[in-house]
Design goal:
By secondary structure, the protein is α/β, with parallel strands linked by helices. The protein is built from 15 helices and 13 strands. It has a domain at 3-252: Alpha-Beta Complex (Amidase signature (AS) enzymes). It has helices spanning 8-16, 22-40, 48-63, 106-113, 151-158, 175-181, 215-225, 269-284, 300-315, 317-322, 329-339, 343-366, 397-403, 406-411, 440-451, and strands spanning 43-46, 75-79, 117-122, 164-169, 184-187, 207-212, 255-259, 288-292, 369-373, 386-388, 394-396, 415-422, 428-435. Strands 1-3-2-4-6-5-12-13-9-7-8 form an eleven-stranded mixed sheet, with helices on both faces. A two-stranded antiparallel ribbon has the order 10-11. InterPro entries: Amidase, Amidase_dom, AS_sf.
Amino acid sequence: MQPYEMSLSEAAGAIGERRLSPVELADSVLGRIAQVEPGLGAYVTVTAERAREEAREAEREIAAGRRRGPLHGVPMGLKDVIDVAGLATTASSRVRAGHRARADSAVAARLAEAGAVLLGKTHTHEFAYGLTTPQTSNAWDAGRVAGGSSGGSAVAVASGMATFALSTDTGGSIRVPAALNGVVGLKPTYGLVPRRGVTSLSWSLDHVGPIARTVEDAALVLGALVGHDPQDPASLDAPTVDYRPGADTRLAGLRVGVPRTYYFDHVHPEVEAQVRRAIDQLADLGARLVEVDIPMARYVQATQWGLMVPEATAYHEDTLRTVPELYQADVRTLLEAGELMPAGDYLRAQRSRTLMREEWARVLRQVDVVAAPTVPATAVEASQETITWPDGTVEAVSDAYVRLSSPANITGIPSLSVPVGHDAAGLPIGMQLLGRPLGERTLLRVGHAYEQTRPARALAQAA
């Protein structure tokens, strides 16, 4: 195994035992970037010299007995909506030409304090406002979409161009590309991870979280990110928790909710089959399966768009009026649509969100987690704009991808996507676990238990 193939936990163990140096690991990952990045387009910019210097510094500190923890000396990518002092935060948009961040975002500062090594900034759908990330190719099939908006982060991790990455999720932007590229993506509870210094799409829906190769890796990254930030009005003052899943993979007594409604409607048969097989595996581990009805399902799409569109337009108000020609057509159209949305629609979406939170809390008193598909279909071809379901219903690709992930953003509950197999074309399929607010530890425990039933995953084949 080459160092770039290691998971975060494997690399951390090897570094801690002095079997691998941070310099060797960084050089291996940078070599992998040189090899496969031209065909995949995961990175906006690669900070190779900075990465090598940070790796050398980590090596010196570890040799002197000053190891900071499991992330020390481990290379990462940051989605290019996350500020790093002195680097551009382009949000993959011409609107940000010439931009340089003046200070680290809260999360970049915390990862730097943990000793992680920055490889560069990864591509996003422009201003994180989309579900395909057109600049980036899927890690398993370069002719298909990467998913979005954190497509660059997911592809970097799936192809060995980053040991882990940090991303944002407003309607599914961590979990969708994670599922489509066969890696793990965690959207934490709203406010658990601070967003200061992160370009906003929709401030009441935005979350920051990790994309990694294993559930344990995601837990290690989450542990470095949490903590109250007084400069973020939404930041929670939550108790310190050890998120690592532990060795016990038994799930006796755990109640897994299996949706009767919504989550298996208009889902590709191969996706449904793999996810139901994974749910059965949770039962084999001792969990009790409980059928549940998803509340207010008919209002999910209207609520998501009713919140996101006007908030995004408000954020972009100045540049939309002064330099509209610099936006890509799809994003500009959405931003202009937000200017036409009545205030009453936004207020109704807020009321709908309140009711939805209450109803989801009721469901999550009946079960410990809900298990469902992350996305209803695998990665579509890059030129494909719609999906036609067996009953003749035609759905836009972006609407299809966001449909199953957005309830967790509306309600703010945590959600974890884990790979559960591949379709006949070899494309990855993801299962989504949803839990109670601040229930990340339970989600990670369940995801890790399932993960241990499967053989170790190889890097993406297209790479």
